[in-house]
Amino acid sequence: MSTKQELLQNPIQHIDIKQHDVVALVDAMNHMAYSSRDLARAATIYDMMLRDTECGVILCLAGSLISAGLKQVIIDLLRNNMVDAIVSTGANIVDQDFFEALGFKHYVAGEEYKYGAGDAELREMMIDRIYDTFIDEEELRICDETTEKIINGMKPGVYSSREFIKEMGKYLAENGRTPKNGNEDSIVLAAYELNVPIFCPAFSDCSFGFGIVAHQHARQGKPMSSIDSGKDFYELTQLKIQNPTTGLLMIGGGVPKNFAQDIVVAADILGVEASMHKYAIQITVADARDGALSGSTLKEASSWGKVDLTWEQMVYSEATIALPLIAGYAYHKKAFAARTGKAFAQVLEPVTA
């Protein structure tokens, strides 16, 4: 039987879209059929979205993406003003990105582990498996404890997930977990530095949840901090009201997808006639047959008044294949050249004052 040290020795390497000019490849796919042509059209729409300098770009993240090697792609989107706000599952932001920002890694799992044959052995070694990747449970506990430490350092009160994640970015900056100090870059840090808000509408469903459970347990009967999901929704809706032209780049589906789409309806409920999302792309392997949200089409979303039908595209592909091509296409075509960061986090500060 392999030891823990032997299993955790081959780190996941995050793909760098800057190193791979895929423009000619994606343009060639536009003359093919099936998913290739869909992907090429999606890349074109993302290029258009970025060239429309009035458009606020919202990136949605669902599924285990950072552990799979997509961290650098998202960092590059942030660092090049190709994303203005992020809506994500908590796991991508905390258990995976913030976890790696603390100096830890995800590891490649051998083929023999992909389908569960060795899971009992992994449990004994405190190794957690995410399909064909490994994460050290003992290091993950340190991530849990760090989130508790951050929460404990905040003034007791009710916060949106965005405000908590901002404090996580501040923690990384103040503790030198930055490229300037020889550490790897991270999504949380880049978003903090560039005033890009990150929302996790189901924020307790990750390492942060363990941190806030520990925080509240230790403060029974005393002032404590808590999450206000309504405040999340209100803040993201304010961005739609402040910046009416919006586009969605959605990886996976689930809660982040619906949360971002619903801000059009929420603005209407607040008495503001908000336009539908002008652009929308979804990368997913789900389909519509079971009625689940992840597979509902963007055309279906138009029936709810959420997504305009002119520039929308479903891409039925696994994210580690499709996202580097779509993002890389826009990056190498310099679609972002005329854009400046919208600093949406600063727009929200008066809302939370």
Please, could you describe this protein's structure?
It contains 16 helices and eleven strands. With 353 residues, the protein is an alpha/beta fold. The strands form three sheets. It has a six-stranded parallel sheet with strand order 7-2-1-9-10-11, sandwiched between helices. A three-stranded antiparallel sheet has the order 3-5-4. Helix 4 (66-79) runs parallel beside helix 9, helix 5 (90-101) crosses helix 7 and helix 11 (229-242) crosses helix 16 (344-352). The longest helix has 18 residues, at 34-51. The radius of gyration is 20 Å and the shape is globular.
Secondary structure: elements and pairs:
Blueprint: H1 4-7, H2 23-29, H3 34-51, E1 56-61, H4 66-79, E2 85-88, H5 90-101, E3 107-108, H6 119-125, E4 127-130, E5 133-136, H7 137-152, E6 158-159, H8 161-174, H9 187-194, E7 198-199, H10 207-218, E8 226-227, H11 229-242, E9 246-251, H12 254-261, H13 263-269, E10 277-284, H14 298-303, E11 307-316, H15 319-332, H16 344-352
Helix pairs in contact: 2-3, 3-15, 4-9, 4-15, 5-7, 7-10, 8-9, 11-13, 11-16
